[in-house]
Amino acid sequence: QVHLVESGGGLVQAGGSLRLSCAASGRFVSVYNVGWFRQAPGKEREFVARIFWTTYIADIADSVKGRFTISRDNTENTVYLQMNSLKPEDTAVYYCGTSPRPSRNINEYDYWGQGTQVTVSS
Asked: Which of 45, 80, 86, 42 is nearest to 64 (CA)?
């Protein structure tokens, strides 16, 4: 079992930056990648980025490519989402999750954190 805790959300003006953290604990034997997803009010949860747990290879959604980066600190088992040049449309609750398979598909993710709110004002 994997336990995930997100932090780092908040209110920021358009053009600003935030760094989200996803602290992981538990058993990682079945973890293939850690992903960040977001869910805006009235919308479905969507893929943002993921990182492969052992190879650190990153995969970024086209909608945020060039503005968001994902990284992992292996000493602390923490995955970060650095968000730059934020836009009002980035406003959402951001969740991290783990999947035992290399996938962007939300249905492949079996453990989730509680989420952290990101609000970007115009």
From this structure: 86
